[in-house]
Amino acid sequence: MRIIEGAHIIEGVRDLFIRLNYDPPSLEGVSFLEPGMGKDESDLANILNKNMDIASKEKRPLCQDCGIAQVFVKLGKCVSFSDAPKLQNLIEKGVEEAYDEGLLRKSTVKDPFDRVNEGRNLPAFIYFEECDGDTFEIYGIVKGGGSENVSSQQMLSPVEGREGVASFVFDTLKNAAGKGCPPYFAGVGVGGTFDTVSTLAKKALMEKRNDDPELMEMISTKIKDLDYGILGFPGISAVKSLYIKKAPTHIAMMPVAVALNCHSYRCGKVEF
Fold it and tell me: Does the model's pTM come out above 0.90?
């Protein structure tokens, strides 16, 4: 049995979420300039590239919306931890310290109707995945409200097939337009159930999956017809990256989800 000190977990989560807001691994090597852009869109792309550079060098948040903390844990059966009754306690302590020490905006309200902000950016939204051996990995996503608001899911009929899924993805992106700060990093989940397919879409992004090249080609062809680019202005770059992850499902169901992330796509992981 491998035992990891709780303080080490808190420190790892804290450092991860601070880095995600300033210099996320998901944007390493990314440039928003693309061939075929007009002058106006090229100017906007240069602004986004400059924003990434300043955020990294000066440790300023990429976006004023420092988001909610989403955490995906891969935990091996031969791993245990100390200093807390539940792993959730350690993770949330790390998140809370990150938002304090990193001077990050705290955006989570306690109740969806009362809208009281307790100033802790908790709870973290945590998903656990069991695995063999002594694997222990924590993936973090900083998810802003704008791109989450234009994400979407739907229960399609199986007879709609790939064409139906591709059309739903296109419609989601068309309706999103500039509201979620494109160019988008888009994850598509297909299969599972109503409550799991949205998580599947976010895992597609984290894992950079392409489980269905035929569907990928259909979606890529359709999104060429989108009439906007960076930040919703006219252009050709509505989508920066697209990923697909599939899962088994019921014979009568075709759950589909599209998880959109803005140009400040903040994702990364820490391994223990």
Answer: yes
